[in-house]
Specification:
This protein is mainly alpha-helical. 72% of the residues lie in helices and 3% in strands.
Length: 327
């Protein structure tokens, strides 16, 4: 409200102080309300997902640079032709998978639903690259992983745990031959000792990996990988994933009844990745040793003799003595 002040004979307009104060308070409250509403909206998956999709291209480019920085030298050393790594093809795969994943996240779906709808497409990508050269999956999976890490960095803090669980599904199905294990399992009778052992231990894979990684970190407090000490959160997550990967490869060998998965995929992959990441063969062997102990402890009452030849082969392949003077 405005009042005419005519005490001095002029027609000047003077403010009603009480009214202005009231309006100022109303505006301030409205501003705070809008700010809170915006903050809430910023955390809403339907708002976060498009923002991350807009960042996807930039994240993919940065992930490519990181991955190339890690592995360019190793790819030359291992004789992997550069033309086998098509950045445009990999970028398209990354965009397709992350776009589908973020749409499911925006729709409020859980990781189980995401796995059901996206896992087969991820496994198809994995099969496509490993069919050309099994070592390529190291390059591809690392670029996918770093893309997810970069997207998490720009995501709201409150949304990072659920997004991390979604992105872990992508990592797991790229790093691990899960569908290969499922396909091999389909050839067994339900009561077969090999299938019974896998069926018992597979749901415990994360718990097994966590126990082993915590023990390895405890035994090697001074060791630093490329990204930091073994106890650092990001290193621990990667370490747990790797121990899970070793388990899945072991189950594939058991179910396929041969060592092809270890010899053609896991061993060459580790040979290419671990030196770049400052993961020593002593650490790997320690992990494999502890894996054997965990399996024996957790599989009491099951026939573990069916696994013994494959586990012993895994131990022999990663014995640090075979790397002396060769790497």
């Amino acid at each position: 409200m405005l009042m005419f002040n005519t005490t001095d004979g002029s027609s000047a307009i003077a403010p009603d102080t009480a009214s202005l104060s009231s309006l100022a308070q109303a505006w301030a409250k409205r501003y705070i309300t809008n700010l809170n509403t915006t903050a809430l909206a910023d955390d809403d998956p339907s708002v976060v997902a498009p923002r991350l999709l807009a960042e996807l291209r930039n994240a993919s480019v940065k992930a490519w640079q990181r991955t190339e920085g890690f592995l360019a030298g190793e790819m030359i050393r291992h004789g992997i032709p550069a033309e086998l790594v098509d950045p445009w093809s990999i970028s398209k795969d990354i965009h397709d998978i992350y776009q589908r994943t973020l749409k499911l996240y925006a729709a409020g779906k859980g990781t189980q639903q995401m796995t059901a709808q996206v896992a087969s497409a991820i496994s198809e990508i994995r099969s496509r690259y490993t069919a050309v050269d099994p070592r390529l999956i190291g390059f591809v999976s690392m670029q996918f992983h770093h893309t997810g890490v970069l997207l998490l960095e720009v995501a709201p803090t409150s949304q990072r745990p659920i997004l991390s669980s979604f992105f872990k599904v992508i990592d797991d199905h790229l790093y691990m031959p899960l569908h290969r294990a499922y396909n091999a399992a389909a050839n067994y009778d339900y009561t077969d000792p090999a299938l019974a052992l896998v069926r018992h231990l597979l749901p415990q894979s994360t718990a097994i990996a966590t126990t082993i990684c915590d023990r390895v970190a405890e035994l090697n407090p001074q060791h630093r990988c490329f990204s930091g000490p073994l106890s650092q959160a990001s290193v621990r997550v990667s370490s747990i994933r790797d121990v899970e990967m070793f388990q899945i490869y072991l189950w594939v060998c058991l179910l396929e009844q041969n060592l092809e998965a270890l010899q053609r995929e896991l061993f060459p992959l580790c040979l290419m990745l671990y030196p770049s990441l400052n993961v020593t063969w002593e650490l790997v062997f320690q992990m494999v040793h502890l894996l054997g102990k965990e399996i024996q402890t957790r599989a009491a009452g099951y026939d573990t003799s069916v696994l013994t030849p494959y586990y012993l082969s895994l131990r022999e392949m990663f014995d640090p003595k075979i790397f002396q003077g060769l790497l």
